[in-house]
Amino acid sequence: MPELPEVETTCRGIAPHLTGKLIVNVIIRNAMLRWPIPQDLPELLSGSTIQAVVRRAKYLLLDCGRGILILHLGMSGSLRILLPRLAQSPELPRKHDHFDLILNDQTILRLHDPRRFGAVLWHTGNIAQHPLLMNLGPEPLTVDFNAQRLFVRTRGLRASIKQTLMNNQVVVGVGNIYANEALFLAGINPKVTAGRIGKERYERLVQAIKHTLQLAIEAGGSSLRDFVHSDGTPGYFQQQYWVYGRSGKQCKQCTTVIKQIKQGQRSSFYCPGCQH
Question: Less Cβ around it within 10 Å: N or C end of the chain?
């Protein structure tokens, strides 16, 4: 599943091609995504100018003036920018290319989503009050996400720290891959109860989360099974993994064998020698 670094990479990739452009057409090939694409979207969007492209958690928000187009990549989605080409050699849609946004310079934003867990939605009014966004926690790369806030939020919690980090009401966008990696850097076992971690250890964990996500964004995210950048190229952060996907291999730091366990139906990877 694309996580925050992959979505942020996508946001940075598509924004220069979309911002300030006029939408001239919308093509819906398959409206049956996680939530149906509104059938009147072509009428709603045509003639609108894209004023800004931003990310909130794992949602991409295209400000079209009269409303916000909400995009989500789901489990397997990716967005591609198709630049104008000669009319006699267009890039034809592939299977699972469900949605096209066509701009006045003939640039196309195309959603590819094999598993159809993504979303293309329309919202007018205060976007912060949309049901999908209104209960989200702070962005991990902002000052709002800090050790004091995390410490207070977790008092009395019996859930593991790994599962807590993946709760979008606590902090957004720290998905499975990056939670594993950040916990390793902070030296915290993923099984530790969140309510038992002190403020000093949370200071290390918050810094580890920010550092891990920043490195992943700089590397273009991770090349997941279905994820590619907006230009079709892969990410490279998987080359830097300390623990994720390395069960049975030696820890790069202490040579202890990396273990894999299940937590909330997701795999956790950790080094018993480095994480306590």
Answer: C
12 in catalytic set: no
Q: Is 42 a catalytic residue?
A: no
> Are 175 and 246 within one domain?
yes
Identified catalytic residue from 3, 6, 8, 181: 3
Q: Please report whether residue 137 resides in a domain.
A: no
Q: Is 3 a catalytic residue?
A: yes
Of these residues, 55, 56, 58, 246, which one is catalytic? 58
For this structure, is 55 an active site residue?
no
Average pLDDT, the chain: 91
Name every residue whose Cβ is closer than 8 Å to that of residue 256 and which is 6 or more positions away in sequence. Answer: 250, 271, 272, 273, 274
pLDDT at 226 over 80: no
Q: C-alpha angle with apex 175: 62 to 159, nearest 5 degrees? A: 130
Domain that holds residue 229: 147-270
Give the CATH number for residue 241.
Answer: 1.10.8.50
pLDDT digits (tens, 9 = 90+) for 115-174: 999 999 999 999 999 999 999 999 999 999 999 999 999 999 999 999 999 999 999 999
Q: Count of alpha carbons within 13 Å of 82, Cβ hemisphere only?
A: 22
Is 276 contained in some domain?
A: no
Number of folded domains that form the chain: 2
Q: Which of 21, 29, 149, 266 is catalytic?
A: 266
